[in-house]
Amino acid sequence: MEFIALSGIKFQRVDAQSMHLGTDKGGWIYAGQRPRHEVRLPTYYIMTAPLTGADYNALLGTEDGKDDERFQVTAETLKALMNAGQAAIDAGVEGLDEATHWEVRCPSEAEWRCAQEVHGLGLEKKQVEVLADAINSNYRGAMMDGRPRRFEGLGPMALHRAAIETHPTREGITALSSVPLDRPVKGIVARLVVTPIRQGAPKRVPNSADMASNIRTEIVCTVLLGVIPSFVIPILRGMGDYAVSGWPNLLFGGLCAGFVTGAFWRPRRPTVSYDDV
For 86-91, what is the mean pLDDT? Predict the structure, then answer.
């Protein structure tokens, strides 16, 4: 079925498929978006618009007079919604494969971006939508089957979640950010997915990169883009004597220039394939 309904709330089907998250750009400014990796998603169902007060009331079977307002997104309200949705699934939902074990939660980043590409998710400008993933500095250790990434440390960040944030003025531009769930925050929205419970140990993006290869690349790029030009330019300008007498200055300047170029450009990094892990 293209749609299923939980307490009258429509969820749209997203067929099983493979997608990629992250970037393979090599510049240091992209370090938090690497590595680019493959994610294989099962068939799941997702709300095509964020939750409203009416949805909250419908799932919990309550009436609080706030049907036209977005409910306050906190860990407590999301837990109540997920529990109510799970109870509805356990009672039986038309169109769901009974042989599959399903769960109700917020989408992972992979599920959100896949559904956005396939169907569009109706997120307005200047909005922040909470995801199920914990906050991480990059995609090292990320799950490759679409399940949420869990928080693996201690401290207050355990109460924060990753989020999709839209551009305040331009449509179709999103960025990954974070939100706290221990208190209501104005402008935060959420939606739910009905998705298969992943079984067994997940495939994960390797936690470490090929450090030796990265160092070799950095040395070559710094020499080619910084050191060599710093000596060639004065020679071409007829200042060959300075290229000899002032070599320490030229070497230092070339190293600095080559180092700075690394912020914006380096060769593309390898993509992590699902079958390679």
Answer: 92
